[in-house]
Automatic annotation (TrEMBL):
InterPro entries, sorted: EmrB-like, MFS, MFS_dom, MFS_trans_sf
Entries under CDD domains matching the protein: MFS_Azr1_MDR_like (cd17502)
Naturally occurring in which organism (per UniProt): Streptacidiphilus alkalitolerans
Coiled coil regions in record: none
Keywords: Cell membrane, Membrane, Transmembrane, Transmembrane helix, Transport
Subcellular location, record wording: Cell membrane
Protein name: MDR family MFS transporter
Domain Major facilitator superfamily (MFS) profile, chain residue ranges per copy: 3-521
Length: 549
């Protein structure tokens, strides 16, 4: 429990950052005049954390978890401070990339340490504490992020900058606690560090994620896109060759992929990561831009999703502990995710009542709760205890890889279509008597808040219309309802395409999980299993020596 307290603070730091930015990003992007560039801030963070994750896992297997967990916290805190000084979305993306280097170790190392000290069958007994961290951060994150973003200034500093500053005191507490209490036995093993594996995986992943984000803008078959395809594929091939050559020294040893459960779960983690971030990114955007909720209110409105995720995770953990069975939970979870995505696509319009939307959010949260923790448990249980760190990091790596690709693709799809959707909605709305009456009413047309639409209609070729919201969407909430409706309808219509794409991804995950073999859960922890393996090897060596004599 003492060790767990240190891990929980580190996990809280990582989990809070995933949720606190979600409700604040629209305000941040508006203030820095780059709403359509927000994908860079999310993608940069996810790219670096994704690439760093397997490196942390391998190094911690070699030298112990504690020094790398402390290093991850330190890097994360420094990156958080840097983010508060950003003056543009590109600068913020660069600082978020540095922050991601620390984030890559926070969650994966915490989960690996739990795997070291707690048997899979008993892990659900402690899952309540772990889930309390996720539940608290899931509830506090959107609320705190929305509240801070909603303040113009706090102590002379723009409110949204405190979204990153709040990590600093939590990180310092985590450093002190982890340094003091995280003392678990580790046998030092001298190995080569697979730096070439880290370089080649970056060369393979980054260009493919870049084209996923920019493909709509560049053109999927443009010269720059084709160059990214070629470099990315060559990088992946080089990474596979390097990992095969490195053998057990590799960041992700290729022998692990011979384990059917590991390889299937890795693919499943990519797909679930894509679907998860597709929903978690779009829902706050819908609540703030389409429904006009303040950042703080949108955090409150996200509660059904978070409570669904928390309660489903606790239920799955308790049932797994009692029965030793776990496959049924990701089967049900991916099915619910698919249904929720389809409901978002077909049922949630710009004028849909909030209650109906929140019910679908609850369904989406339950699906996530039944799926996420179980996938990590499945991977940890399927590999030898000596590979606990690298296997846990690999599961996190593949989930974050899917999340990064999903973020890039889904936001690219959204912002490539939103301008045309808004313009189409305006053409339809402008023919209605209500719109024409408002347009010719001096009291309405003369309002300062309505001037963006008046200017757009007077100068239709001046880059207004749908394109105007790509840098700053805050003016929508100042418009009269009749002028705001086409903007909201255009955004909702664009999000429908994203949700349909997400539904397709999680539907593939549902089919795949049906074929994953359920391995009986071990009743010993990772440390105990390694000790037993070492004793067996020593006994075998002694027996051979006796036979020889």
């Amino acid at each position: 429990m003492t060790i767990l307290s240190g891990l929980m603070i580190g996990m809280f730091l990582a989990a809070l950052d995933q949720t606190i930015v979600s409700t604040a990003i629209r305000t941040i992007a508006d203030d820095l005049h780059g709403l359509s560039q927000q994908a860079w801030t999310t993608t940069a963070y996810l790219i670096t954390s994704t690439i760093a994750t397997p490196l942390y896992g391998k190094l911690s297997d070699m030298h112990g978890r504690k020094p790398y967990f402390l290093a991850a916290i330190s890097i994360f805190v420094v990156g958080s401070v840097a983010c508060t000084f950003a003056t543009s979305m590109i600068e913020l993306a660069a600082f978020r990339a540095f922050q991601g280097l620390g984030a890559g170790g926070l969650m994966s190392l915490a989960l690996a340490i739990i795997g070291d000290i707690v048997p899979p069958r008993e892990r659900a007994r402690y899952q309540g504490y772990i889930l309390a961290v996720f539940a608290t951060s899931s509830v506090l994150g959107p609320l705190v992020g929305g509240f801070l973003a909603g303040q113009s200034t706090i102590l002379g500093i723009a409110g949204w900058r405190w979204v990153f500053l709040v990590n600093v005191p939590i990180g310092l507490v985590a450093l002190v606690v982890v340094a003091k209490v995280l003392n678990i036995p580790h046998t030092r093993r001298e190995h080569r560090i697979d730096w070439w594996g880290a370089v080649t995986i970056a060369v393979g992943v980054v260009p493919l994620l870049l084209v996923a984000e920019q493909g709509q803008t560049w053109g999927w078959l443009s010269g720059r896109a084709l160059l990214c395809y070629v470099v990315g594929v060559l990088g992946v091939i080089a990474w596979i060759l390097v990992e095969r050559r490195m053998g057990d020294e590799a960041l992700i040893p290729m022998r692990l992929f011979k384990n059917k459960v590991f390889s299937q779960t890795s693919v499943l983690s990519v797909l679930v990561g894509m679907g998860m971030f597709g929903g978690l990114l779009m829902v706050p955007q819908y609540l703030q831009i389409v429904k006009g909720a303040s950042p703080t209110k949108s955090g409150l409105l996200m509660l059904p999703l978070m409570l669904g995720m928390m309660s489903a995770s606790i239920l799955a953990g308790q049932l797994t502990s009692r029965t030793g069975r776990y496959k049924i939970f990701p089967v049900i979870g991916t099915a619910l995710l698919t249904v929720a995505m389809l409901l978002f696509h077909f049922e949630v319009q710009w004028n849909t009542p909030l209650l109906e939307t929140m019910v679908i959010m609850l369904l989406f949260g339950i699906g996530l709760g039944l799926t996420m923790q179980t996938l990590t448990l499945s991977v940890q249980n399927a590999v030898p205890a000596k590979d606990m760190g690298v296997a846990t990091a690999s599961a996190t790596f593949f989930r974050q890889l899917g999340a990064t690709a999903g973020t890039a693709i889904f936001l690219s799809v959204l912002f490539s279509s939103v301008g045309d959707k808004i313009n189409a909605a305006f053409r339809t709305a402008s023919q209605t008597p209500q719109f024409q009456a408002a347009l010719h009413d001096p009291a309405v047309a003369g309002k300062p808040g309505n001037q963006p639409v008046i200017q757009m209609l007077q100068h239709p070729g001046a880059g207004g219309g749908g394109a105007s919201v790509l840098s700053d969407s805050s003016f929508i909430q100042k418009l009269d309802d009749v002028f705001a409706a086409p903007f909201k309808q255009g955004f909702a219509d664009s999000m429908h395409g994203v949700f349909l794409l997400g539904a397709g991804v999680v539907a593939v995950a549902f089919v795949l999980v049906l074929f994953i073999k359920e391995v009986p859960l071990r009743s010993v922890s990772g440390i105990q299993a390694q000790a037993q393996a070492a004793a067996a090897a020593l006994e075998k060596t002694g027996a051979k020596g006796a036979d020889a004599s």
